[in-house]
Amino acid sequence: MIVILKKEASKQAVDAFVSDVKKKGLGVHISTGVDKTVLGLLGDTSRLDPEDFLANDIVESAERVSAPYKMASRSFHPQNTVVVVGANQSGVTPCEIGTGKSCPLIAGPCSVENEQQIMDAARAVKSAGAKILRGGAYKPRTSPYSFQGLGVEGLKLLSLAKKETGLPVCTELMAISELKYFDDVDLIQIGARNFQNFDLLKELGKCGKPVLLKRGLSGTISELLMSAEYIMANGNENVILCERGIRTYDNYTRNCLDISAVPYLHKVSHLPVVIDPSHACGIRWMVGELAKAAVAIGADGLEIEVHCNPEKALSDASQQLTPAQFSELTEKLQKIASVDGKTL
To answer: How far apart are CA 120 and CA 115, in angstroms?
Structure first.
């Protein structure tokens, strides 16, 4: 249920109203905008009648929210959420995602392979305009015989790259037991295979770090938002949604990029939406085309895989761009973004 308060409501009156609601055993999410304050009532509101709230002079309207996701809903939070990645760190340039004024690039290799490889990639993507460095320390692979990542050693190498370049770091978390090693990670990625690992999502709700939540292989939009709800309901509102393609009956690409997810998610949710064109197609020459479409349709960011020598990459060689290709692409993306007055 949401309750909209009148603009002229005093802080004292609002505090008293919130206190009364909490005494009913409900949680309250407060969203303060320029023109109004919206209260999201969390818990079992079935016994409450929205009309009863109108008896209070500070209440403008009250209504039930039909969507199963509450905190992720735009009804609860009319203003766009801006997630800051890499905040309050010496030597690190923070990146804002969700401002509506930029489409920052998250770029780097699929896997961290060795120190030279990740350092070269970090320098290259920063030079081309990337705002966040990505790289997999832990790698979920379909085959148990494929490269699984360097683990903790990979996280240490990402920290070295972060220290030299000043780029915040994004990498994937696969298990709760690994979270203790992620202190120097700025944006925790939850991959498609874990997007409904609810115990993991609950734990991320307690960690306070920004989370990049990828849509599952066959996940619906509602399921993606409910997964975000798990994180938010446990205390962490810094969630970024990521469309990375879903599985369909056709197999000419690795996955099928649901580009229409971007405007729809912006309509029903206040959370930022990022597109991952690399995993969407799995084909190097298509990555740029999908990236251009993503910027044009209003994505809040892009996650693109870049490797200095893709042919020798230990994972996802066929979809990673070279630094030269990435640099050329960023110039094209900036031209598209500028049409709407945005930067990368």
So the answer is: 8
Q: Record the pTM.
A: 0.92
Nearest to 128 by CA among 276, 309, 279, 304: 304
Q: Which residues contact 245 (CB under 8 A, 6 or more apart)?
A: 253, 254, 255, 256, 257, 258, 276, 279, 280, 281
Say if CB 95 and CB 104 are below 8 A apart: yes
95-134 pLDDT, tens digit each: 999 999 999 999 999 999 999 999 999 999 999 999 999 9
The beta strand positions in 45-143, using DSSP E, are 59-63, 83-85, 95-97, 105-108, 132-134
Q: 10-residue block means of pLDDT along the chain (344 residues)? A: 90 93 91 83 88 92 89 92 96 97 98 97 98 94 84 97 98 96 98 97 97 97 98 96 96 96 98 98 98 98 98 95 98 98 97
Helix H or strand E segment including 281: helix 277-281
Determine the angle formed by the axes of helices 221-233 and 261-268, rounding to 10 degrees.
40
User: Could you tell me which residues come within 8 angstroms of residue 10 by beta carbon, excluding any fewer than 6 positions away?
Assistant: 58
Classify residue 236 by burial, with Cβ atoms within 10 Å: 0-12, 13-18, 19+: buried
Is residue 159 packed enough to be buried (19+ CB in 10 Å), middle (13-18) or exposed (0-12)?
middle
| Angle CA 194–244–339, to nearest 5 | 145
Q: What whole-number distance in Å separates Cα of residue 139 and Cα of residue 174?
A: 8
> Structure tokens of 260?
């229409």
**Tokens 């890499």 correspond to what residue?**
86
Which residue(s) pair with 44 in the sheet? none
CA–CA dist 21, 27 (Å, integer): 8
CA distance 247 to 176: 27
pLDDT tens profile 220-278: 999 999 999 999 999 999 999 999 999 999 999 999 999 999 999 999 999 999 999 99
